[in-house]
Amino acid sequence: MELWFTEMQTPYLKLSFQVKEILAQTKSTCQEIVVLDTEVFGRVLVLDGFIQVTQMDEYIYHEMISHVPLVTHGSPGEVLVIGGGDGGTVREVLKHPEIKKITLVEIDAEVVEVCRRYLPETGSYLDDRRVHIQIEDGLEFLKNNPEQFDVIIVDSTEPVGPAKTLFSREFFRSCWNALKEDGVMVSQTESPFYNRDILERSFQLTRELFPRCGTYFAPVPSYPGGIWSFTIGSGRRNPCKIEAKEKAQSINTRCRYYSPHIHESSFSLFPLYPGKGEG
Considering 15, 131, 180, 210, which has the largest number of Cβ atoms within 10 A of its Cβ? Predict the structure, then answer.
């Protein structure tokens, strides 16, 4: 008997793929957590029916959500990751040798433990001595840590359930307050095709707070539409044009997808979003 997984990407669109084995299935206090072994994507982490991480393409997402803001900043020492309990973003941040501390704020401890066990290519990096894990709500954590971080990376799930507050005006304002004067913030802002309202709102909230901002794209085949958006705000540097060129070249040698050329060209948006990649 064939076993298939189906994600409802919109009310009118589904993505289905064949499953070899269900490796884990549990219900935490926050959500349903499932790990699948599949033919197409390898191992897949699914939260409440939505694909979060696949072995096939996670490196693209994690490299782009991490290195664009870190290279934009130039010399980040302390980084906050909100969400990202799978460890992929932490893995990429650790590639920057000047990093002194990474604080990971994840609302669901069970996600961290499941990924440590079933996705070691990302989850194992959560055990690095520079990583400090806080199991709590991201918004509440921000309120208690003003002007502390060089870079904030919001690696959230879809804006439903426990992640809904991570797309609010209060959350964006709290991120701004938690950054140092020249800080940089980036958020994953969903599909530019199917979630345009989320992207538009996130960009507007970022533009209200940060002197420099932009939206950039990356291909992530397992996500709705195959193209994903990220919205970035910077206190000083233009995120669309690399100033720290030596740093970007150095990181490029340790990446499978990110490069200085991709960094800058990812802001060259198609006509659906004119002007949003200009910084």
Answer: 210
Give the count of beta carbons closer than 10 Å to the beta carbon of residue 7.
17
Does 240 have pLDDT greater than 90?
yes
Q: DSSP string spanning 39-75?
A: TTTEEEEEETTEEEEETTTHHHHHHHHHHHHHHHHSS
Q: Containing domain of residue 121, as a range?
A: 58-265
Q: Is 198 exposed, middle or buried (0-12, 13-18, 19+ CB in 10 A)?
A: buried
Q: From CA 271, how far away is CA 279, in angstroms rounded?
A: 16
How many distinct structural domains can be found in the chain?
2
Please, which residues bridge with residue 38 across strands?
Answer: 19, 42
- The neighbouring-strand residues paired with 250 are none
Active-site residue flag, 155 = yes
Q: Is the pLDDT of residue 274 over 60?
A: no
Active-site choice (128, 137, 155, 182): 155
